Amino acid sequence: MRPGDYTSLIIVFALLAAAPIVAGPFYTRLLATGILYGMAAVGFNILFGYTGLLSFGHAMFWGTGGYVVAIATTKLGLPFPISLAAALAVVGIVALVTGFLSLRHTRIYFAMLTLAFGQLIYAIALKWRSVTGADEGIYGIPRPLGDVTLYYYLILAVSLAVLAAALKMLKSPLGLAFRSIRDNSFRAEVVGYPVNRLRLLSYIISGLITGIAGALYAPLQTSINPESLYWTFSAAIVFMTILGGPRVFIGPFIGGLLYVFIQDAAMGVTEYWLLATGATIGALILLLPEGIVGYIWRRLGGRLE
User: Fold this and answer.
1) pTM for this structure?
2) Mean pLDDT across the chain
3) Least packed by Cβ within 10 Å: which of 1, 102, 138, 254?
4) Is the dihedral of CA 142, 147, 150, 151 positive or negative?
């Protein structure tokens, strides 16, 4: 029987729900990080894998979400639900403005513009010491529910809701419109699709999902610093997506989980863990250009998007 997107989503999240039973606090926290990385990669892949646009600025959504929650909870004393809503509002505005300006171009020019806007947000966080704490960042961010395991299940529940909504959207006529733009934007425009508006909508949805992940990540770590906005994290999101497989919905999510554990294993083996992580991921991508999940999916008879 061919695998299905909804079935694979249920199986993966059922396994993740059971994981804290056998995992200690350290690995529970590591899994929570992987889940949020995976959600960010799924968000990115709506733009990359389904709409055909490569962004090198998605760290700005991740970091903006995290910083807004950090500022709202530590400096303004707002409860977490309101802080999360504020983060989504700010990320949405950032996505709307940067998307409107960046989508005047496509291909490499679009990628470079997103990189430039991402670095601009990074520079603001680095220099605005009174608000962001500059290079020291913000510490003491309260973690909802207190306990890591309880917060893990909150992250898991939010991630499942976000991914299920994203999958439903991608199976709808809107998702089909995104794919038609990816496959042939000229033909999509000829048949009547408002290509520029749909690209902007894809960009905003993509940014919001990545922003939700970042907003949940800051309380998990109880701190945030400008590194979460730096372009290298945008590149990491691209790696996660390609590692898992951009042509399968669950692929980038698994890629985010794998990225965290590859990184942790490399740090435990060598002080040159960045080199080891890059070499491992590079080798996997070269050997399996469809991504790990994409390769398995195709072998099981599934159809790549």
Assistant:
1) 0.94
2) 92
3) 1
4) positive
